[in-house]
Amino acid sequence: MSNKRVVSSTINGQQVEFLTEPQQSLLECLRDTLGLTGSKEGCNDGNCGACSVLINNRLVNACLMLGIEIEGKDVVTVEGLADVHELHPVQEAFVLEDGLQCGYCTPGFIVATKALLDKNANPTEDEIRFWLAGNLCRCTGYDKIVRSVRLASQLMNDAKEGLQ
Amino acid sequence: MKTFDYEAPVTIDQTITLMSKTRGKTLLLAGGTDLLVQLRYSNQDVDLVIDVKGIPELNQINYDEFSGLVIGAAAPCSQIYESAPVLENFPAIIDAATIIGGKAIQNRASFGGNLCNASPSGDAIGAMMSLGAICNVVGSEGVRNIPIEDFCIAPGKNALEKGEMLISIQIPSPRPNSGSHYLRFTPRAEMDIAVAGVGASIELDSDLNKILSARIALVAVAPTPVLATEVSESLVGQKTSGSLLEKAANIAKETISPITDVRGSASQRKHLIGVLTRRCLDIAVKRAVQVS
Q: Is the CA virtual torsion B203, B205, B207, B210 positive or negative?
């Protein structure tokens, strides 16, 4: 028996309506219904952070929410970070510092990093590692990830100064 | 996950009605960080999931000196540790809220959920127990106030009757010259589950050398988090000293009979409870001296 409900929310700046069954996770809705496959399924129980997204600017695991829970909410996935012409500074920093190996955990790390830098523009190494504790890199490339976050912080601060 | 129905009521009354009308199994959803994992991997049949995050009483964090702190059952950890009155008055609550999960979990996981989940290793339960929390429960029969030490009755089982829901947790205002702390041992510094944990609150006299009252909660060393009354009794009326706290730590070790499981052995847990109790009391006393 199908028990589909309509959910309306804002995803990456666009008003979206989609159908979901109540038991479907937000991650399933994003990937399978909406075609937003940037968010990855790693552990599917909240340990690995590969499905990190922002809901009303707060970092959450999309596997630990139901799709139906985002009714009326503002969702940002990794697809929503870059604009058409250029990468988001966090993405650029991960490229420049080689902050990825296989790349599977990268969208989660990038979304979590954006959430960190929006809150704390100049995090220390300890703060970076603590904040990213909910994201696992199976290739163990943590040092390069931390370096990428530091560069991202610098790029974002430079961009802000450039505007002033 | 198996199929289920979903409702998101906005009042307590609507929720109670939904629970009483549904004939099959009903579950309440707050942050979902435990519940959705359990539903995904247990394959249990559930008829209705009721999302309670839209109910204002369950999201509140209110503090006044007279009635103390009220934490809505669905308020996430991050809302708790970003609250100025909690930061100012309830250090053990901040300790627990900042070590549960990582940042993404803290934006969802609630203290009420931690309590209803009734895990032996619930960090929030230990912290709230040390502070003498009362659980505000509503059901079709009316209101009940359950002391937190009576709320968890077995691993994964709480004292709620069918049709009842946890609304909020009430924590009395700190007494003058008091301090609290929650401390746990985990192999990994974050994103881990306690092998053992200790929550303590201590009230000193106006000269700051005698202990007037003490509450100590022990976590992950019994079927539920437990209040260690023998430890409290050993402290009350005594002058604070290293040897007194050492003695209390030894009593804590002797009161428990923990089990061996994947996270740690019984003897490791006993040892840890001694070390953690000593350290936790020390910090609670220091905090009591600082606030005075």
A: negative
User: B27: buried, middle or exposed (CB in 10 Å: 19+, 13-18, 0-12)?
Assistant: middle
Strand B157-158 to B26-29 pairing:
unpaired
Beta-strand relationship, B26-29 and B5-7: unpaired
Residue B200 bridge partners (DSSP): B181, B216
List of residues 6+ apart from A130 with CB closer than 8 A: B190
What would the pLDDT profile of B36-72 be if each residue is shown by its tens digit? 999 999 989 999 999 999 999 999 999 999 999 999 9
DSSP B169-207: EEEPPPPTTEEEEEEEE-SSSSS---SEEEEEEEEE-TT
Model pLDDT for residues A124-151, shown as the tens digit of each residue: 999 999 999 999 999 999 999 999 999 9
B154: helix, strand or coil? strand
| CA-based nearest distance A41→chain B, Å | 14
Task: Tell me the angle at which helices A106-119 and A89-96 cross, rounded to the nearest 10 degrees.
Answer: 120
Provide CB contacts within 8 A for A157, sequence distance 6+.
A121, A122
Q: Which of A26, A64, A142 to mutate to test the interface with B (most CBs of B within 10 A)?
A: A64
Q: Any idea where the domains of chain B sit in the sequence?
A: 5-51, 56-171, 178-291
Contact A23 B1 (CB under 8 A): yes
Q: Which CATH superfamily is domain B178-291 in?
A: CO dehydrogenase flavoprotein, C-terminal domain (3.30.390.50)
Contacts of B17 (CB under 8 A, 6+ apart): none
Beta strands at A52-55 and A74-76: parallel, antiparallel or unpaired? antiparallel
The pLDDT tens digits for B75-102 are 999 999 999 999 999 999 999 999 999 9
The answer to whether B103 contacts chain A (CB < 8 Å) is: yes
Q: Which residue has the tokens 């109540």?
A: A22
Please provide the average confidence, as pLDDT, over all residues in chain B.
Answer: 97
Query: A119 in helix, strand or coil?
Result: helix
3-state DSSP assignment of residue B71: strand
Q: Kindly provide the ipTM of the predicted complex, given to two decimals.
A: 0.96
Minimal Cβ distance to A47: which of B8, B189, B191: B191
B25 inside 8 A of chain A by CB: no
In a shared domain, residues A133 and A74: no
In a domain, A29, yes or no: yes
